[in-house]
Amino acid sequence: MEIYILSIFPNMFESVFNETIIKRAQEKKLVKIETVNIRDFTHDKHRTTDDYPYGGGAGMVMKPEPIYEAMDYVKEKSPDVHTILLTPAGEIFNQDKAKELSKKDSIAIICGRYEGFDERVRYLADEEISLGRFVLSGGEIAAMAIVDATVRLIPGVLGNEESLKEESFEDGLIEYPQYTRPRVYRGMAVPDILLSGNHKKIKEWRMQKAKERTLKWMGVEDG
Ligand code: SAM
Predict the structure, then answer these.
(1) Is 157 part of a structural domain of the chain?
(2) pLDDT per position in the chain (223 positions), as tens?
(3) Same domain, 13 and 119
(4) Co-location of 103 and 202 in the same domain
(5) Full-model pTM
(6) Ligand 1 and 112: CB distance under 6 A
(7) What is the CA(161)–ligand 1 centre distance, in A?
(8) Number of helices and strands (H, E) in the chain?
(9) Are residues 131 and 192 in the same domain?
(10) Among 38, 61, 133, 135, which is best to mutate for testing ligand 1, by the most ligand atoms less than 8 A from CB?
């Protein structure tokens, strides 16, 4: 899979993409990530990517030309790239969206800054995605979250594919409680059933707990 991230702050991605799972996925050539600096597609001496809004108002708006030219560069490499525009009011990102994206050959994620994009940038996008109903200062943190959640679903990326099957949101359930050593910590003990060695009973207990958690979570989600 190829991932292109268009941003005016490409350095922000360095540490996140050069550690742990995403790093390994790139080394295994399961994913190729390229950060594209929108500023490289400006033509003025100050490498300007923003300008005043027509009609007045607070803040600056991202100019269309450098973003269009950055996308021309991406499309030359990957003509059928699936293009995502990050906006606070877009479709809220979730596990199903991560699964959908993990099956694509090539995606481009456009990160905004300032007061957002010139409206014409919207025509570049196949879809608009939001990380949640809050306003970040820029799309970079949202892009990192989307790339992380997506890349770990690409077959071969995680060492243990089985672990994916039991994660939250699989089969519509929240993951059951997990414990590791020590057996008792600050008076909190690991449930005896997990030490019983009875795998059938452990499976039943986990299913029961997952259901309880899911019901509780649904209550919270519904407000
Ligand atoms: N003025 C814009 C508005 O009211 O919708 C907010 C602009 S925000 C400060 C700058 C950029 O951060 C946005 O263009 C978008 O790319 C990104 N961004 C902010 N919040 C986001 C969110 N919740 N999800 C995804 N991207 C977000």
Answers:
(1) no
(2) 999 999 999 999 999 999 989 999 999 999 999 999 999 999 999 999 999 999 999 999 999 999 999 999 999 999 999 999 999 999 999 999 999 999 999 999 999 999 999 999 999 999 999 999 999 999 999 999 999 999 999 999 998 776 777 788 888 899 999 999 999 999 999 999 999 999 999 999 999 999 999 999 998 776 6
(3) yes
(4) no
(5) 0.94
(6) yes
(7) 34
(8) 7, 9
(9) no
(10) 135
